[in-house]
């Protein structure tokens, strides 16, 4: 039985002292709980190659995640773990001192844990520079796979999946109830934390081995040991930058949400009523599909769902919106409701600290691209972005690359004509526009469809033309871009081998469906993955120059930064400088990366459009 004492009036009872050997996560672990036990075991932990840490909070919701119940610290072999409760000032001081003395700190999912430790005053800025995230490395070594701690424990350490600790408890227990109510008075609560620390500590060696095995399968642009280590350092530097931004938080203008809803709610209600009278519910896409079919607005070429129903994908409906009022109303209501819901997430996000703390998931996608969650800022409609205010005194500037995926494809494919056109200041889609005599938006759809592996039938449905017309259009456009066309053919052939490689040497396995390789994704992985490499190299250099604190967001191919003119000039210069590896690849051909700054003012979004409620037209949202 653990010796229990009361720590603070608002905290549950915690162990005062416990030191014992426990069988946890496949090994025998010396576990110490409380200050006295920690002082005995910490010298062993701090003398190891690295230290692992994990935390337990009251939950993952914004109001709960910032309240820490316990912190586990373990040795690199995972066989010595100390558990402390920072709600006790003595234990909090010991935690802070211990983390300050670490030379290398490992966390699995630092995007969640590290900002919480920073805001709790337990993790100093200096220690953040020594932080490594085993989840980020796992995403690099197993792109697109299951890389949570439990999955890594099974895949890399052979530890079988175990049921959650509340599975056999009497009563109605759930993950939320467990996080909220369980504490260090339960042995299985301690065991769960100890297991997480022990597994995290032991992941380093097998993860690096897995990364080496994947790198050895590179069909081209292979990397050596030094370059592979640099890639890990690059992603780690980006992780540290985003951890700091998450911890600092972003200010929000909650009045913006109220004003937006007040202005547009009546219009949306009227549109919804018109839809209802036609038998259409904006919240039920199947009613829109049935209405389209009943009114003869679609034919056999229209894209269908897996169940055979007409698709209501936005890209298809937009082609009808200009001549069918019901479709225009449907899209407008759907867009507005989406905007309302995203604005509502901000209100919940600020509940704990008064700030928004978006979680940036480095290397989250198979291509390596980042994602943002809690809230999902990458998915915010333009109209919702104005709710976020600048954390900088001088406001914000957006700097993005112009048509970066086409530029990357032209560079990798060594498309001389297209690269010269771009260097001459022409639109990257200009050759396609001239070759086919089509508007820019059509040319863009065709080019990107080719890079994404979209087939002729799907392209025809998107454009509202016959398959023969789509093929003819595609052939005309890619005849003007022979280098890009050759890249698509080459990457598709290469993908049949199961792997492709991005510009920086990251190897990406090709997705399988029913056991068959989806080789058509090869070009997409190479181009999108290499476009991410450009962003990653820019962020790495920004961090190296000490400018990381001036970056508010990295969204797709855009950086939102401090409007300080010196910062803007330096970041734009970094983004306009191609990586040496790409310069070497194109040889004597011109290589131009256009990094275009755009002032945003004191909030995120485009002035006069998404952020100005007096001029914004919600029905035009998708054009922004």
Automatic annotation (TrEMBL):
Annotated DNA-directed DNA polymerase family A palm domain residues: 383-567
Region feature (Disordered): 597-624
A matching Pfam family: DNA_pol_A
InterPro entries: DNA-dir_DNA_pol_A_palm_dom (IPR001098), DNA/RNA_pol_sf (IPR043502), DNA_polymerase_A (IPR002298), RNaseH-like_sf (IPR012337), RNaseH_sf (IPR036397)
Any one GO molecular function term: DNA binding
Gene Ontology biological process: DNA-templated DNA replication; double-strand break repair
SUPFAM superfamilies: DNA/RNA polymerases (SSF56672), Ribonuclease H-like (SSF53098)
Protein family according to the UniProt entry: Belongs to the DNA polymerase type-A family.
Name of the featured protein: DNA polymerase
Organism of derivation: Mycobacteroides abscessus subsp. bolletii 50594
């Amino acid at each position: 039985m653990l010796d229990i004492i009361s720590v603070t009036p608002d905290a549950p009872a915690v162990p005062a002292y416990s030191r014992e050997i426990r069988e946890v996560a496949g090994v025998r672990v010396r576990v110490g709980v409380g200050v006295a036990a920690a002082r005995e075991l910490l010298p062993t932990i701090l003398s190891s190659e690295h230290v692992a840490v994990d935390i337990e909070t009251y939950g993952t919701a914004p109001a709960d995640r910032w309240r820490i119940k316990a912190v586990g610290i373990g040795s690199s072999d995972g066989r010595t773990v100390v558990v402390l409760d920072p709600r006790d000032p003595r234990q909090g001081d010991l935690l802070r001192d211990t983390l300050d003395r670490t030379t290398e700190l490992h966390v699995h999912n630092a995007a969640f844990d590290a900002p919480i430790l920073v805001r709790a005053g337990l993790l100093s800025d200096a220690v953040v520079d020594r932080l490594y995230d085993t989840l980020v490395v796992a995403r690099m070594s197993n792109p697109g796979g299951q890389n949570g701690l439990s999955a890594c424990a099974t895949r890399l350490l052979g530890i079988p999946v175990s049921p959650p600790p509340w599975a056999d408890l009497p009563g109605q227990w759930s993950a939320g109830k467990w996080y909220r109510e369980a504490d260090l008075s339960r042995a299985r609560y301690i065991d769960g934390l100890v297991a997480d620390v022990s597994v995290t500590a032991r992941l380093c060696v097998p993860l690096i081995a897995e990364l080496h095995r994947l790198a050895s399968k590179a069909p081209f642009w292979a990397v050596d040991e030094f370059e592979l280590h640099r890639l890990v350092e690059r992603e780690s530097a980006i992780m540290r930058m985003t951890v700091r931004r998450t911890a600092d938080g972003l200010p929000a203008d909650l009045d913006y949400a109220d004003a937006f809803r007040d202005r547009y709610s009546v219009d949306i209600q009227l549109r919804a009523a018109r839809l209802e009278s036609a038998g259409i519910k904006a919240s039920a896409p199947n009613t829109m599909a049935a209405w389209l079919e009943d009114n003869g607005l679609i034919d056999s070429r229209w894209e269908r769902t897996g169940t055979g129903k007409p698709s209501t994908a936005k890209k298809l409906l937009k082609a009808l919106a200009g001549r069918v009022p019901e479709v225009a109303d449907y899209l407008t209501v759907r867009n507005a409701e989406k905007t309302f819901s995203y604005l509502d997430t901000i209100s919940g996000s600020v509940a704990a600290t008064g700030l928004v703390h978006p979680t940036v998931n480095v290397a989250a996608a198979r291509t390596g691209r980042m994602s943002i969650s809690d809230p999902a800022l990458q998915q915010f409609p333009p109209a919702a972005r104005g709710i976020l205010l600048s954390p900088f005194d001088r406001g914000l500037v957006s700097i993005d690359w112009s048509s970066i995926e086409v530029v990357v494809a032209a560079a990798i494919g060594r498309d001389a004509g297209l690269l010269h056109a771009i260097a001459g200041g022409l639109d990257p889609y200009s050759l396609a526009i001239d070759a086919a005599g089509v508007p820019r938006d059509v040319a863009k759809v065709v080019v990107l469809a080719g890079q994404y592996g979209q087939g002729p039938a799907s392209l025809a449905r998107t454009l509202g033309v016959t398959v023969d017309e789509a093929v003819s259009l595609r052939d005309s456009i890619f005849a003007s871009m022979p280098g890009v066309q050759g890249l698509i053919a080459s990457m598709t052939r290469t993908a049949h081998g199961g792997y492709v490689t991005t510009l920086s040497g990251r190897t990406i396995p090709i997705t399988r469906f029913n056991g068959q390789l989806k080789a058509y994704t090869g070009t997409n992985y190479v181009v999108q993955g290499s476009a991410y490499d450009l962003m990653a190299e820019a962020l790495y250099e920004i961090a190296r120059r000490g400018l990381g604190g001036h970056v508010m967001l990295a969204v797709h191919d855009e950086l939102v930064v401090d409007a300080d003119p010196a910062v803007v000039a330096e970041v734009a210069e970094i983004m306009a400088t191609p990586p040496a590896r790409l310069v070497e690849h194109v040889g004597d051909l011109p290589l131009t990366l256009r990094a275009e700054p755009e002032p945003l003012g004191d909030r995120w979004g485009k002035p006069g459009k998404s952020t100005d409620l007096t001029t914004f037209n919600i029905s035009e949202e998708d054009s922004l």
